[in-house]
Amino acid sequence: MTIYSPSRISAFDGCKLQYKYGYIDEIPSDTEAIETFRGSMVHKALEEFYALVKSGAIRPLDWLLGTYKETWEKNYPENIKIVKKTISAEDYCAKGRQALIDYYEKYTPFNQTKIVDTERLLGFKVARGDTDYSFHGKLDRLDWNDKESIFEIHDYKVTNTLMTQEHADTDWQLGLYHIAIKEKWPDVKKVKLVWHSLLFNKEIVSFRTEEQLSDLKERLVDKILEIESCTEYPPQKSILCNWCDYQNRCPLWKHPKAMEELPVNEYKKDPGVKLVERYAEFENEKSALKSKISEIEKEQERIAEAAIEFAEKMKVSVIDGPAAQLKVDIKEEVKAPTKTEDPKSWAALRSLLMKEGKYEEVSTVNNNMLNYRLRTWPKELLEKIKKFLRRQVSKTVKLVKK
Known about the structure:
Elements: E1 3-4, H1 6-14, H2 16-24, E2 32-33, H3 34-54, H4 61-75, E3 80-81, H5 89-107, E4 114-128, E5 131-145, E6 150-157, H6 165-170, H7 173-184, E7 191-197, E8 202-206, H8 210-228, H9 254-260, H10 264-269, H11 271-314, E9 318-320, E10 325-327, H12 343-355, H13 359-362, H14 367-373, H15 379-385
Parallel strand pairs: 1-5, 2-3, 6-7
Antiparallel strand pairs: 4-5, 5-6, 7-8, 9-10
């Protein structure tokens, strides 16, 4: 039985191929992004600090910063990945250090709550029918607020993006931790979810209702079922690719990353580079021809307008020329309203045709509609229409700019 976690589900939603590499093939990552490393070191320093707070020992700020520095130096990997070349490792370290200073000064003397645990591993199960789905996750810190008689789940964010209140109110990770806490302490009436956006020195708070927790469980099972029924794992290109650990093996990045390592003279000789250059040459020629064709078509349109005017004036339908003729056909046509141009009329006509039992006679089946609906239709219907469908391998080439 697979045990799911926030990171596992996030990986699937972010890029299915990355999910396959990490969780199915279990390929170890080649590198670690410095943003990830900095976050881990800040977390580690706060974990050690709060472990002492739990025992009643409040260490000074210098101790926290010294722990952070020592942890950074001891664990800094040789193959760390720094995407933003204008920012040094020292800059990243210094920003993490400042975040700890701001945090320490904000929460001194650290007596707001009682520390229950740090880096606590939580697990629970969600049932649907006869099946239980296992889930676990590690929360950064769990506090007991004896003044309000509520638990507080704290999460440290060491990212350059400031979490919004809307994001916090819909975030499912801490919501799942809320569910796990309620299972361990059923008498708990309320749980406070707290995010510390450390680089901004800002605290974001949210709560969940019973209805929201119930809905979250259902969505969690739906997501797990989607993951378990997945058979294809295409790569998904996004800005997050820059921080992916598997760029060197990903089909979207394998060749470009290999080319980055080559000197200019070897780069020019690469067969793949030559193919792109030749393809681009033809694309440029096509672009020039398209521009010329566009000019010709515009001139033809002007001539056609003049021909129509001539035919109406002379009351003829054929205009003679030295080697050809122009046939001018002028007739009224019925044109239905489009959904884009006139949605109200389109909807009214559609309703009328359906009421009269004629809609199917003017509707159509096409690939776009099927590909969209196949993701949402029930399995029973998919089995019925399977015999009408065929799989086809599509091979296309498109020139894109870097």
